[in-house]
Amino acid sequence: MSLPVYKTTLDNGLTVILKEMHHAPVASFMIWYRVGSRNEKPGVTGVSHWVEHMMFKGTPTFPGAELDRMISREGGYWNAFTWLDFTAYYETMPSNRIDLALQLEADRMVNTLMHPEEVESERTVILSERHMYENEPRFLLNEELTAVAFRVHPYHHDVIGDEVDLHNMTRDDLYNHYRRYYVPNNAIAVVVGDFQQDEMLSRLNELFGHIPAGEPAEPVTRQEPLQRGERRVVVNGPGDTAFLTVAYKVPPATHPDYFPLVLLNAAFAGGSSLGVIGGGSSNKSSRLYRALVSNGLAVAVSGGLGPTVDPFLYGINVVVRSGRTLAEVEDALDAELARLAQEPITEMELNKALKRARAEFVMAGESITGQAQLLGLAETVAGDYGWFEGVLERLNEVTLDDIERVRETYLRRRNRVVGWYEPEVMAG
Amino acid sequence: MSNQSSYPGPDSIVRRVLPNGITVLIYENFASQTVVIDGGVRTGALAETAEKAGLAAFTASLLMRGTQKRTFDEIYESLESVGAEVGFTAGRHMTSFSGHSLVEDFDLVLDIIAESLCRPVFPPEQVEQLRGEILTSLLIRANDTRYMATLRFYETLYGREHPYGRSSSGYTETISAITREDIVNFHNTWYGPKGMLVVIVGAIKAEDALARIEQTFGAWENPQQPELPPIPSAAPPAQLTRVQTSLPEKSQTDIVMGLPGPLRSAPDYLDASLMNTILGVFGMMGRIGKSVREEQGLAYYAYSQLHGSVGPLPWYAVAGVAPENVEKTIESIRAEIGRMQNELVPEDELEDSKAYRIGSMPVGLETNSGLASVIGDIEFYQLGLDYLQRYPDMIREITPERIQAAAQKYLSTEQLVVSVAGP
């Protein structure tokens, strides 16, 4: 069974979070950098994600091909992901091999080379990744909708970056970003799994302790001004299926209204009760599913919000059933939202969401990699791993009045963006 | 589980065959207060005709939309009230179910699986509701480059007469033509306990779990349940065969290329499987990934797959590339196939892939779901309960010559179907 979480900060500012779990001979190491698309300026959009790719190209000690080979031949898997507020790397290994992960992350925090020819070769890989997303109507809609929602704040652009910047960015842009943000005082190391806390801590000190701290990251100051009225966006593109997204501006993870919104969404749309992206089970007993899917207007509906550093979006996504129209579906959604105001979430619906939260929390605890990701996410976006460890207590404090208050405050027409994907192939 | 003798095996997996033909496998794991139940009945797309393609999947998707005991709304209300998950999917050879819940909700999950499987009522309005959802999903599929490249690959490689040569989700015409009577008949005929598998992993005592399964499924009978028809063999095409699907205004092209692969029961299956690890899996997608992505920067993904089964499912490579790089990518993949056939794999490269296959076992067995899936495969493919304990040595014994022999026997640079979908 798992032991309590231990948190400390090394002298150079590296935050360390350790959690022993001994049910399987596996350990997961993660390093989170507090940098993502939120920190990017026009001209270098997508730089955080591209740097993530370059981190796999190697250092003098661990050349790129060698890195990959070493992890894989020890039976591990590794990967990385970049999001609005962070760039994170992880290795899940048989526990007696986890030291390799620590060594290579300590090394590539400082020594990644970024050869110019590798930057060029990766440019086409990144463009190919972007084009893979563009093949998806939902990506095209989401990218436009988010840009319309955020006129000022850098959440405006997608994490992958704008095509033009992916063509123009230079090796220096990438390398400078790396040197600026990949410093211990801007990072969080998380280890979960089958290890001894004292030994792990002293090993982290040996490997990371000597890396000098850097300048603190400059604060992101371009906060989004108050939205004054509903915004709408239409995207046309190939296909036969229409998609509707309605997104409301909502507060960040640390705001007291965050968990009431999580439970509102869990009860109304059947989304995750823990307030993290992904997770959650089916939503076929939710009000929204019954109003849109059971009534034959849509084939799928989901609602979700995720923890972010700055205010972001609560999105309701609908796949329109063939033969139905976007306008019909939007009307039905609005009618259900109006009903939600007349007939607020009940105690029974709240209790159901809370029981689901407990099941989701226990299931999330089964996977060592999953635990490392949730602890790291909490520490990165909320500045406190306890945001996740204590989530059940926080949810239990939410009242029906809180839920009704956040509905009234945020689920307003003037606070939303409505996005339509209307299939239409260009003639000729 | 730190050494191979502590992997699940004959001493820790409880296996029972019930008189009506159900095989039950149970593995206790008290690390977390959850239980996973996986399993399936012996039916799937193999049991349907070309005219009714998608019937098995349609039927499976309706199981939870109303039973003799509960309506659709009642089923999902009870599951979602406790955060439990239950799902059914029809594959080609098996119609599978999967449940995951807190241990306190295991009885509910088991009851819903049992009533959905044995006593569904297929309400007419739910048949139409689901038909509309499937038809919409087929339209989404028709505009997805990766899905269409894959579908045309299977159709071209196996032909419409072979059960692998048709979409198991069906087609607009076949889904539109399936009647409720077809569905009821399909269920009455094909669903039964003979050959059924149940795997339970989690915080429950084996004897308790076994008693619950006997109580729930012990009396289930279907005297008319037939054996699935045998799966025809499949030959690779006589020469390189191209098929092109045009999807205007898309940004990227998908390529799927390959040929029929070995059966899981082939004596050299692990040789072929390890060969595929070297070719398109190890590290950053093996030799194919190294050439197409790392060295040439042509694609975000380029890898190969081999999943041996009870029929000749394919070996295939997949890549997503810019339209102007299609030819270069196909040639690069063919070159890697040729190199695999013509040159012995260097010892150190082989050792890397062996170490990966053996070393990654504990990671795959970390969760209840991972354990249930591996134990289910061991039973389905009749690998023996000591398979996980024998596996490391079987991998270690493979030589460069055996890898080359598998590449020569199962791959080809010419006799391939190459399916391309994009702008």
The geometry of chain A reads as globular
Based on secondary structure, the structural category of chain B is alpha+beta
Biggest contact: A-B, 77 and 74 residues
Instruction: Determine the number of helices of chain B (DSSP H or I, runs of at least 4 residues).
Output: 16
Report the radius of gyration of chain A as a whole number of Å: 22 Å
Q: Report the strand count of chain A.
A: 11
**What is the CATH topology classification name of the largest domain in chain B?**
Cytochrome Bc1 Complex, Chain A, domain 1
Would you give an account of this structure?
The complex is a heterodimer of chains A (428) and B (423). Chain A has 2 domains: 6-208, Cytochrome Bc1 Complex, Chain A, domain 1, CATH 3.30.830; 231-423, Cytochrome Bc1 Complex, Chain A, domain 1 (2-Layer Sandwich). Helices cover 42% and strands 18% of the residues of chain A. Chain A contains 16 helices and 11 strands. In chain A, strands 1-2-6-3-5-4 form a 6-stranded mixed sheet, sandwiched between helices. Chain A is globular. With 423 residues, chain B is of the alpha+beta class. Chain B has 2 domains: 4-217, Metalloenzyme, LuxS/M16 peptidase-like (Cytochrome Bc1 Complex, Chain A, domain 1, 2-Layer Sandwich), CATH 3.30.830; 241-422, Cytochrome Bc1 Complex, Chain A, domain 1 (2-Layer Sandwich), CATH 3.30.830.10. In chain B, helix 1 crosses helix 7. In chain B, 50% of the residues are buried. The interface between A and B is large, with 77 and 74 residues.
Kindly summarize this structure in a few lines:
The complex is a heterodimer of chains A (428) and B (423). Chain A is built from 16 helices and eleven strands.
For the structure shown, list the relevant keywords.
heterodimer; A: 428 residues; alpha+beta; Cytochrome Bc1 Complex, Chain A, domain 1; 2 domains; 6-stranded mixed beta sheet; 5-stranded mixed beta sheet; 16 helices; 42% helix; globular; B: 423 residues; 11 strands; 44% helix; 18% strand
